[in-house]
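re: ur question from yesterday

yeah so i grabbed the chain u mentioned. its 268 aa long if i counted rite. heres the sequnce exactly as i have it in my notes:
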Amino acid sequence: MKVLLLTGSHPRHLYVVNQLDKLGIITAHVKEVREEFMPQPPGYLEDIDRTNFIRHFADRDEAERRHFAGNEEVKTEIPTLQVTHVTLNSSETIKWVKEQTFDLAISYGVHMLSKELLDVMPAHSWNIHGGLSPWYKGNTTLFWPFFMLRPNWAGMTVHRLTSRLDAGEIVHQSVPHLAYGDGLHDVACKAVMQVAEDLVQIIQNTPLREIPYVPQKGNGKLWIGTDWIPQHLRFVYNVYNNDIVDQFLDGKLPRMDPPIISALRKEE
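ran it thru and got these structure tokens back, copy pasting raw so excuse formatting
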């Protein structure tokens, strides 16, 4: 199998690249240089919200440095095209992709691909989405399960790449193991690590022709970028002090497990 990856440039994205690269199957990599990881708080915030904003993104940075240490770069030499948000769907990118040889394309952490770029992708083209679709499609979808007091719904979806955002047929879903002491960002990092581990197993053990594609059913929600505002952090940090996982594990929050679609072979 030969794989083309299209990923962002943050350590979480490059962690997935490095894990899949251990299989020796990556033939090309389109890397989109993403925004700065530590945003500045908006000037209009009250003190409580400014404090939460700084804490939230500092904690995210610390958690990702800890979980993804050593993944600031791709560890082996792979033919790579570096792009920006503006040039991701350019004619130059499309031409470069067409010149590569691959059976499977996987995207993770890039902006939405144009129809023209999708048209040069193979039949098996997947996206790794940070959220369980269809309930958590769109943006900030590893935050909202915590806001809804369902930390066990903070997971990842691998689905077919389509022109509709996070709407393609599902290949696989995964959720990480929750442990005492896990904060919101620990769970998000563990979700990425779990889906990378699962993808390695799926690619190693399941021929592409046997991959099941499951249509998304039911009424979910597309969370858009403007749904999230810094004031939402009061609930996570001031009401719960980021101990939602502990309270969930203690049985202080109601438990309802998500219906997970898995492509892992049962014997594994």
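noticed a couple things. The chain has a mean pLDDT of 94. also Helices lie at 11-21, 47-67, 91-98, 115-118, 144-147, 184-205, 233-239, 244-249.
anyway ttyl
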